[in-house]
Sequence to fold (245 residues):
Amino acid sequence: MLNKSQPIPLYFQIKENLMYKIKSHLYEVGNLIPSETELQQEYKVSRITIRRAVRELVQEGYLTTRQGKGTFVSKPKASQELNLITSWAETMMWLGMHPETKHIQFSEVTAPINIVKSLSMSVGDKIYKIERLRYANNEPVCWMVNYLNPRYVPELLKKGLIGESLYETLEKRYNIILNAAVEKVEAKAATGKEASLLNIRRGSPLLYVTRTTYDADDIPIEVVTAASRADKYAYTVQLAGRPKK
Fold:
């Protein structure tokens, strides 16, 4: 099973073999994988080697360790491709997951200073704010706050959204075609409020995304902040080519 004559480290070979078993469903989601002792006997390596392979799979989200219970196969993370302008609900459905919004609040507020500039508004202007707790397959995954210029979405607070998607609402009701977006992705620790909403511990890792979206005329339509559980959500970036010299 392992090729000790190759320059590839043994822990990496074990990691790749375990990953194959996960992806081919030899180890099913939610099930225990063999114990360290069992893996040590199976691969005939030291416990340190096994621990390193398992630790890296835990860090990458393929496995999760529960104190006193063992190591389990994790549910796959939802992954969004960064080169596409997709709504959260669209991404979930494309991944075969069921999106739900179990908390939604519409309000008109004074535009926050950091939002004013992004939406080309003036200090003191009123702005529409939508707060949503997003679920995927009955698990809380994302706390999302959208800010929109009322000029482009009149009566949005009164009429609400079409289905689960703000972007579908923009397209079908307001004839706004989103053409470009700029995203900033950061790693942050969950606040007390975020932890309570997302059913995680305070200080747990979050992927915090701020996106400004533009229409075909390069007009900024919305700014959205999304705090997503890092154990449930990931981003995929497609790259092509090398810089020209």
User: Anything to note?
Assistant: The chain has eight helices and ten strands. Residues 86 and 208 are 17 Å apart (CA to CA). Confidence is low (pLDDT under 50) at residues 79-83. The two ends are 44 Å apart (CA to CA).
